[in-house]
Amino acid sequence: MILNAHLPTTLVKAVDDLKHGEIVALPTETVYGLAADATNGKAVAKVFAAKGRPTFNPLICHVSSVEMAKSFAEFNGIETNLLAHFWPGPLTIVASRKSGSRLHELVTAGLDTVAVRMPIGLTRDIISELDRPIAAPSANRSGHISPTSAAAVSASLGPEVGLVVDGGECPIGIESTIVRVVGHTIHLLRPGGITIEQLEAATGLTVVMPSAGGSVVAPGQLKSHYAPAAKVRLNAISLEEGEAFLGFGSVHRSEQPAVFRNLSETGDLHEAAANLFRMLNELDQMNPEVIAVSPIPNEGLGVAINDRLARAAAPRDAVKNQMT
Ligand code: TXA
Ligand code: MG
After folding, report:
1. Ligand 1 neighbours (beta carbon < 6 A)
2. What is the pTM for the complete model shown?
3. Which of 18, 164, 240, 270 is the most exposed place for a label (fewest CB within 10 A)?
4. How far is ligand 2, taken at its centre, from the CA of residue 313, in Å?
């Protein structure tokens, strides 16, 4: 069932379902999340089942207040500074997990760390009303493109999810940035809605990208991910016969094939991030063999966009069962 987020009864129904251990798809400023009460193991298990997600992959805990976050996570000075700057908003902090909290073990997949973020808008109000953290991965089947609309949630998950709260298109359109503070550096586990430049400006610290073989990685950051059915060809300057095209910036009319979308005609990276998953999805639904994508500048939000595109273009087979 899809319910409009603006109806007052929708919040009541969503909170009630979550309280009773049901899973609910909720809009956030980044992408739609598939939410469960993070203190209820059975409810969290339903999330993994609906996504077809390997249970070793931990989930992000969403909170409505810093106080709620502190009930299950410990933040050092740098982390406290980060959350003061960027919450509510698209920054996820991987912090130490407090022992003896009500958070269910399944949420963190047995790790002694926990990923926490405070979303903007209705979902935050729902968490506040529920008065418990919610665990919520992106509301897509494992390995597929993250949904940025209620219709995309339903198309990806089908009837597995009872309630989808329709809050319209997600304004940011790309998932949160995930960081882990190690000593005096910020490790970027996943580029996302908050840019490296913003993190460095707010903290005066250096942001590093740990290599895939390093000690701290987001377990879900597997190479092949966000996979459309079509093959994806990156940095396409010209088009081959029969390719669909995902453009960026000014692209000449004569170069446009029938199956064409432009992430942002004006070359605006915010607009491009907001359009990315929807346009990939739309092109993919026209069943092209290949989607060719324009080069995207690797700065600001372009880092997160290029990260998702690189995953969409990566070979699929080796990691088929390990996507999130
Ligand atoms: O914007 C977002 O972050 C969206 C919305 C719904 O909030 N959520 C989202 O969740 O993208 P998900 O599950 O699709 O991605 C979460 C990532 C995974 O790569 C997971 O491995 C990583 O966070 N993660 C979760 N807990 C972690 C931990 N304790 N340490 C390292 N990585 C962790
Ligand atoms: Mg995901």
Report:
1. 28, 30-31, 33, 57-60, 90, 92, 94, 108, 111, 113-115, 136-138, 175-176, 178, 189, 218-221, 324
2. 0.89
3. 240
4. 16
> How distant is the alpha carbon of residue 122 from its chain centre?
17
Q: How far apart are CA 94 and CA 215, in angstroms?
A: 13
pLDDT digits (tens, 9 = 90+) for 132-170: 999 999 999 988 889 999 999 999 998 888 899 999 999
* pLDDT tens-digit readout, 33-86: 999 999 999 999 899 889 987 666 899 999 999 999 999 999 999 999 999 999
Inter-residue contact 11 to 121 (CB < 8 Å): no
Cα(240) to centroid(ligand 2), Å: 31
Phi-psi region of 114 (alpha: psi -120 to 50; beta: other; left: phi over 0): beta
Give the model confidence (pLDDT) of 14-47 as tens digits: 999 999 999 999 999 999 999 999 999 999 989 9
The answer to whether the beta carbons of residues 304 and 193 sit under 8 Å apart is yes
Whether 27 contacts 175, CB under 8 Å:
no
Nearest CA residue ID for atom 17, ligand 1? 220
Burial class for 153, CB neighbours closer than 10 Å (0-12, 13-18, 19+): buried
At 137 the three-state DSSP class reads coil
Q: Which of 138, 224, 308, 319 to mutate to test the pocket of ligand 1 (most atoms within 8 A of CB)?
A: 138
Residue 184: CB atoms within 10 A of its CB come to: 10
Report yes or no: 109 and 55 within 8 Å, Cβ to Cβ.
yes
- How would residue 320 be classed by pLDDT, with cut points 50, 70 and 90? very low
Q: Find the ligand nearest to 58 CA.
A: 1
DSSP state letter for 175:
P
